[in-house]
């Protein structure tokens, strides 16, 4: 597994469960985009080098809009991460995708509008996003799901909304009419930034409810909240189990993948006119193509 390091992005509970009794080393990484959501934890598990990050910070303090996505992905790159397995909850837009199921989505509709969505503010970079998730890493998750007692859907379109309020019924019905299967708040710009950083990135989605398109009946808010928390905990445990099974299979990812060279045709700026300061500041991302010039 030389050269492979897996980053895992999820909730604080997922990170704590993955660490368990193991010894994890915390890292405070400074990035050009500010600090990440919290310390990055490194550890060895079953011969695999892992870097764990709680997306919303300690105690889930950061709303989806305020998550420092750029700093999070940049810090993972600095620590040598090559593959990212992300996990997050969402609402289901389809009857057959039931709460307590798992989904490995293959498409995204981006409805966010308040989040910085690129590392490259000082040059023109256009990465290919027709397949927003790494297909080779998705196949690892799919193979790891075989024989699982939990229903795992191996395709799905994730609608990423801004939030933090949940969908109106009209919005939820609109997402269904677009072909959306799930609605959540964190897949973007996370997947875009992973592609810009030439990271293999795949997502495990944990459906917890049917969003706003399906009436919830006359249940009291307290009862609905309790049921949602129970579903979230159970689904998170199933998602954790899938990620653990997938870890031992990461070494089977083919050596050649388009994610590894996403920037090869993506840098449109005249390379001779990109300032040395930009090359140096973004060296973990651009160094392979634009090494800093010796002055």
From TrEMBL:
Site positions per UniProt: Important for substrate specificity: 167, 225
Gene3D superfamilies: Nucleoside phosphorylase domain
Residues bound to phosphate: 55-56, 186
Keywords: Glycosyltransferase, Purine salvage, Transferase
Binding site for substrate: 185, 209-211
Any one Pfam family match given in the protein's UniProt record, by short name: PNP_UDP_1
Statement: the UniProt record of this protein carries the keyword Transferase: yes
Note: Although this enzyme belongs to the family of MTA phosphorylases based on sequence homology, it lacks several conserved amino acids in the substrate binding pocket that confer specificity towards MTA.
Catalytic activities: a purine D-ribonucleoside + phosphate = a purine nucleobase + alpha-D-ribose 1-phosphate
Protein name, entry field: Purine nucleoside phosphorylase
Quaternary assembly: Homohexamer. Dimer of a homotrimer.
Similarity comment text for this entry: Belongs to the PNP/MTAP phosphorylase family. MTAP subfamily.
Pathway participation: Purine metabolism; purine nucleoside salvage
């Amino acid at each position: 597994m030389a050269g492979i390091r897996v980053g895992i992005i999820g909730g604080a509970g997922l990170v704590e469960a993955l660490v368990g009794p193991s010894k994890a080393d915390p890292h405070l990484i400074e990035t050009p985009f500010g600090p990440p959501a919290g310390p990055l934890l490194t550890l060895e598990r079953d011969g695999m080098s892992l870097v764990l990050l709680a997306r919303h910070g300690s105690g889930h303090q950061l709303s989806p809009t305020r998550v420092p996505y750029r700093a999070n992905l940049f810090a993972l790159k600095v620590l040598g991460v090559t593959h990212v397995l992300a996990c997050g909850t969402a609402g289901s837009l389809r009857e057959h995708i039931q709460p307590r199921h798992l989904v490995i989505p293959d498409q995204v509709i981006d409805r966010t509008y308040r989040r910085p969505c690129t590392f490259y503010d000082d040059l023109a970079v256009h990465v290919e996003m027709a397949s927003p998730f790494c297909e080779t890493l998705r196949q690892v998750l799919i193979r790891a799901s075989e024989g699982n007692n939990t229903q795992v859907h191996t395709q799905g379109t994730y609608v990423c909304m801004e939030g933090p309020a949940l969908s109106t019924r009209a919005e939820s019905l609109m997402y269904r009419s677009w072909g959306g299967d799930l609605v959540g708040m964190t897949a973007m710009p996370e997947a875009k930034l992973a592609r810009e950083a030439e990271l293999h990135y795949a997502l495990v989605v944990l459906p917890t409810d049917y969003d706003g398109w399906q009436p919830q009946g006359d249940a009291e808010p307290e009862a609905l909240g309790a049921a949602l928390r129970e579903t979230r905990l159970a689904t998170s445990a199933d998602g954790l189990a899938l990620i653990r099974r997938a870890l031992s299979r990461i070494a089977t990812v083919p050596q050649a993948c388009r994610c590894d060279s996403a920037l090869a045709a993506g840098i449109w700026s005249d390379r001779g006119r990109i300032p040395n300061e930009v090359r140096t500041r973004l060296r973990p991302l651009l160094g392979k193509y634009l090494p800093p010039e010796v002055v």
